[in-house]
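Hi R.,

Here's the chain you asked about this morning:
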Amino acid sequence: MVDTAHRNTDGTGVADGVGVTALLVAAARALESHRSDSLARDVYAEHFVRAAEASADWPVHPSQVPDGDANPLWGRFARYFGLRTRVLDDFLLRSVRVGGARQVVLVGAGLDARAFRLDWPPGCVVFEIDRKEVLAFKHRVLGGLSATPRAARVPVPMDLRADWVDALPRVGFDPAAPSVWLVEGLLFYLPPAAETYLIDTVERLSAGGSALAFEVKLEKDLLEYRDSPLYTATREQIGIDLLDLFDLAPRPDSAGRLTDRGWSTSVHTPFDFTRLHGRGPLPEPNDALAGNRWVFAEKPHTAGGARGA
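And here is the predicted structure, written out as tokens:
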């Protein structure tokens, strides 16, 4: 196995540990952007991929994938990330346009360029929480492109393993106003206690009218999928062993925790949205995506209960 998944090889902060998966998602978004039937477009994604030594030779256009959609990594898995991008884009825009929230918090923002590429209503502020090295790399790449955010953008350099409950209010976040939270592709890597702390922190900082989307895995034993085409291709083609990066401990019921605190929640498989949009991955045997669930939660304006507990 190539060890770029464990060491920072180029000083970008995105080529060590979980950080390298941000490059994987960026490459998938780049591929999706160039599809004729694209679900989402991110014109910045390929620039992130090319700017990091660890990913400089990865494909960013479908024409660069010799076996096309038959490739488990750059075909099916990349399309999964394209679908996830579209679904979560829609969630964020619906939450600010219909729900009226103006504070958007990207928890574990990675190389997310939503502050730059989505059509935000006036007055929106996008807070991006991630390690300072990741945010600095993103700043350098976007600065080189003279990219201009479409909403007020506030980078929040924080290690999410630290106590970050006070970090957002210090940079202008208002816990008394409705907010929209996105935790995309992060919880897999956190110990159960850290996931619970994150969900509790979001609950504590969320006023009535707030919304949250996050992704979880429901499998009891992820190692049952070690030889799945998706995980095998990721190990063999780009040297990332996702199962080595995931926390394999039993997961908490975060959706149920929010429901118990007065939030309304809905849980979906990615395949629900494949059928909705008419394109994307569908179930297959030995499927590493079988346990993935996308959770959407809203806190009613009248919600009471255990805020701050």
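One quick note: Strands lie at 103-107, 125-130, 152-157, 179-183, 211-217, 264-268, 292-298.

Cheers,
M.
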